[in-house]
Design goal:
This protein has one domain: Rossmann fold (3-Layer(aba) Sandwich), CATH 3.40.50. The protein has a seven-stranded mixed β-sheet, sandwiched between helices. It has a three-stranded mixed β-sheet with strand order 6-8-7. The protein has a two-stranded antiparallel ribbon with strand order 1-2. By secondary structure, it is α/β, with parallel strands linked by helices. Helices cover about 30% and strands about 25% of the residues. The chain has eight helices and twelve strands.
């Protein structure tokens, strides 16, 4: 673990500098006109990683309540330190994942690229990962001035390195309804789901009585097995209106973001 300074002089703990810079851009993209956040709102962040989304929200809004979920212990330890840096006393974190039932399950942890860690390792086949990496390099942030000098013929080797050293880690899983009841939540102003392929199970773990307290959802979908349409139908059935976007760096992959609002 180390501490770095982001482009706007924000200090943050991280495992990898490059990861933290890209994660910051990724989560900042969620804060756009499609979602309305106010002071005092309650946010549930599923797949918090090192906590950059919660950190940015804590900077922008007063009295904001954050419930952040991260199942991998080494990442969770970094998240703990970033919660301290946020100085938000309403920022709670929990060391487990979210699914459709309470159980223990192995997650594939990628130490060289922690945001890829997933319960569904088939998501990151070499082709999808190469497309994602190529898109990232082609749309690199200004601070990555060096990206244009990396020959594309090296990309497959870098992708190999990103997946190298992966290992299975047993994680505890809970349902979102468990989170709601355990924290006595009466409202969720924004539910953010970024859990690398487990997104449909997260939604299936919401009891019928709890859907009504959720006002907005941001969900990253790995569109395999027609998952996008399955999730869209479910959200529309629960009374949400949807907008769908693809990040420019991920336009050639099966990843897309859905903004659901009432």
């Amino acid at each position: 673990m180390k501490i770095i300074t982001l482009a706007d002089k924000t200090k943050i703990h991280c495992i990898s500098t490059l990861e933290a810079q890209m994660l910051d851009i990724h989560v900042s993209g969620y804060l756009n006109d499609n979602i309305v956040i106010n002071n005092g709102d309650t946010i549930v962040d599923i797949g918090a990683n090192i906590g950059l989304f919660g950190h940015r929200l804590s900077q922008r809004y007063k009295d904001i309540k954050i419930i952040a979920i991260e199942p991998i212990q080494s990442i969770f330890e970094v998240l703990q330190e970033n919660v301290k840096l946020s100085e938000n006393h309403n920022y709670k974190i929990f060391p487990y994942g979210i699914s459709n039932k309470n159980e223990s399950k192995d997650i594939v942890y990628y130490p060289n690229s922690t945001p890829m860690s997933t319960f569904n390792s088939e998501l990151w086949n070499n082709n999808q990962l190469l497309l994602a990496f190529t898109g990232t390099m082609n749309n690199a942030p200004k601070i990555w001035w060096w990206a244009k000098f990396v020959p594309t013929l090296f990309y497959p080797m870098i992708v190999y390195w990103l997946k190298r050293g992966s290992k299975n880690i047993t994680c505890e899983l809970k349902t979102l309804s468990y989170i709601i009841e355990d924290n006595s939540l009466e409202k969720i102003d924004l539910l953010k789901i970024d859990c690398e392929g487990n997104e449909l199970k997260v939604l299936n773990g919401i009891a019928p009585k709890h859907w009504k307290i959720i006002k907005q959802i941001i969900i990253e979908i790995h569109n395999i097995n027609d998952r996008y349409h399955t999730i869209s139908k479910l959200l529309i059935k629960e009374g949400f209106k949807l907008k769908t976007f693809k990040e420019e760096s991920l336009k050639d992959t099966n990843l897309l973001n859905v903004y659901a609002t009432r």
